[in-house]
Amino acid sequence: MENLDFILIIKMIIIGIVQGFTEPIPVSSSGHVMIASELLGLGEQGFTFAILTNTASLLAIMFIYRKDIIRLAANSLLYIKTKESTYKSDFRFVLYLIIGTIPAGVLGVLLKDLIAESVSMTTIAIMLFVTGIALWLIRNRRGSKGEGTMTAKDAFLVGLGQAAALTPGISRSGATIISAIAVGLDQKTALRFSFLLYIPVSLGGVVLGISDFLNESNKADLAIPYAAAFIATLLMSYYALRWFMGIMEKGKLIYFAYYCFIVGVLLLIFF
């Protein structure tokens, strides 16, 4: 293997690590991937690469929540079939996930080309400040709503937060968790709803990106680097989410606010 190819693989692994680590935590994975790509001299990564790494993160999240996914799907089908109250709460939770998906799903389709356009480092810095301020504002909030007391309105408002995260620099997990805590959900429900809400939107992104991937002119040349990035993202997303679950249990989101402020300042100074 040529030296240049080996260097590219290493760089792609680094990008995969960055994507995987920042996807589950409230600091904007898309913004950090752009920063890392700039520092590594790779330039802006294309829509196909974003879909590939997001798919890796999706698989990691689905694996962690696999028992919840299976239970929700099975019990929802049982409720539709039997109408037994035992399964009603899971059926309702699935409906809330559908409601929460609508804002980002609609805007994602309408603004697909706009979202894929180049975004400046200044924009990312500003959006990191916005994320940091939002994290700061909810730092002491402890919601009391669980799955049983959550409403369709709560789900839609969290969905609006996810739609806002279509902007690079706005963290998807941060926007949804902040929105969930703001409407009064407890930490556990906020975390669970946030990441289960990521699944349908991410799957939709994969479907929208299939044609871009198939039309990628040099995908054969990038097969090994892309595969390396995919594996790195998959593994890092898994461990990062496990770590973040512990952070959420302790209610220490304030540290991510500090981080967003620091990175935002550094971007404004050096880029």
From TrEMBL:
UniProt catalytic activity: di-trans,octa-cis-undecaprenyl diphosphate + H2O = di-trans,octa-cis-undecaprenyl phosphate + phosphate + H(+)
Alphabetical list of InterPro entries matching this protein: UppP (IPR003824)
Transmembrane segments: 7-27, 47-65, 93-112, 118-138, 193-211, 223-241, 253-270
Keyword hit for rRNA-binding: no
Top-level taxon: Bacteria
GO cellular component term of the entry, any: plasma membrane
Membrane topology recorded in Swiss-Prot or TrEMBL: Multi-pass membrane protein
EC number: 3.6.1.27
Keywords recorded for this protein, A-Z: Antibiotic resistance, Cell membrane, Cell shape, Cell wall biogenesis/degradation, Hydrolase, Membrane, Peptidoglycan synthesis, Transmembrane, Transmembrane helix
Localization per record: Cell membrane
GO annotation terms (biological process): cell wall organization; peptidoglycan biosynthetic process; regulation of cell shape; response to antibiotic
GO molecular function, one term: undecaprenyl-diphosphatase activity
Biological role: Catalyzes the dephosphorylation of undecaprenyl diphosphate (UPP). Confers resistance to bacitracin.
Family listed: Belongs to the UppP family.
Entries under HAMAP family matching the protein: Undec_diphosphatase (MF_01006)
Other remarks on this protein: Bacitracin is thought to be involved in the inhibition of peptidoglycan synthesis by sequestering undecaprenyl diphosphate, thereby reducing the pool of lipid carrier available.
The name this protein goes by in its record: Undecaprenyl-diphosphatase
Organism annotation: Planomicrobium soli
